[in-house]
Write a structure and sequence with these properties.
By secondary structure, this protein is mostly helical. It is about 50% helix and about 5% strand. The radius of gyration is 23 Å and the shape is globular.
């Protein structure tokens, strides 16, 4: 059974008046193995760059959209909600004041948190904004209209970019988010910092990316291993500066 199917079934049970006990469906589906595990596609940096190049070749406006997703790890709903005023270049370096998503909370208040971006991306975004300012959408489609998270107008061009880059056809835009989070984990960024920047929680990161965290932990722990082959006398000697 496809992993996404239980969610669809529960949704149908919720809206179909013929199903009078939706809770029974939810409890029954919870017993099915592996139905809660998402298919997380992690791309190598070279693949991400290839995907961005492919997107730019198809449509430069969409290429910029993909680049923002790849750099920040933001969800589509967050990227489409970016405003020109969210692009900031004062202080230590350029950043985007990334709006939070409403994921998991219908009445959730939208907050904006600073997410650093490279100067090259900031320059392209500044050029894209042009004379627009303040609350105007930061990213626009090639036809001048804002991108829409609800209509999913990014899916078709993304599928074309995936095909052009020679990647797995099942790769979705969410792969850019997964890859950005794993990239930060492998760089040694504290999970709390990653979670805040990517609008999630440390618990969710540990649950979703545990395999990658374990791999990184191995490299970190190895630095503090005791070398039992080292002579005891040498192990107790502390070297002094200048000696």
């Amino acid at each position: 059974m496809p992993r996404i199917l239980p969610r669809v079934v529960v949704l149908l049970a919720k809206h179909d008046p013929r199903i009078t006990n939706a809770n029974a469906w939810k409890l029954g589906l919870a017993l099915l193995p592996n139905t809660h595990r998402p298919r997380n596609t992690i791309l190598k940096d070279a693949q991400v760059l290839s995907l961005i190049d492919a997107a730019n070749a198809i449509d430069p406006a969409f290429g910029l959209f993909c680049e923002v997703g790849a750099v920040t790890g933001a969800r589509v709903s967050q990227i489409t909600a970016l405003e020109v005023g969210d692009l900031q270049s004062n202080g230590d370096g350029p950043r985007l004041m990334m709006p939070s998503s409403r994921k998991g909370h219908a009445g959730k208040r939208i907050e904006r948190k600073p997410v650093p971006i490279p100067a090259t991306l900031a320059a392209r975004l500044r050029q894209e904004a042009g004379e627009r300012d303040g609350p105007a959408p930061l990213l626009l489609r090639a036809d001048g209209k804002p991108w829409s998270a609800t209509s999913a107008d990014h899916r078709l061009p993304f599928a074309r970019a995936v095909d052009r880059a020679g990647l797995d056809p099942k790769t979705t835009f969410y792969a850019l988010r997964h890859s950005a989070i794993v990239r930060q984990i492998l760089a040694g960024t504290p999970l709390r910092v990653v979670a805040a920047a990517c609008d999630t929680s440390t618990a969710q990161i540990e649950r979703t990316y545990s395999a990658h965290i374990s791999g990184h932990a191995d490299a970190v722990l190895r630095k503090g291993l005791l070398d039992t082959a080292q002579p005891a006398a040498a192990a107790n000697v502390v070297a002094l500066k200048g000696r």
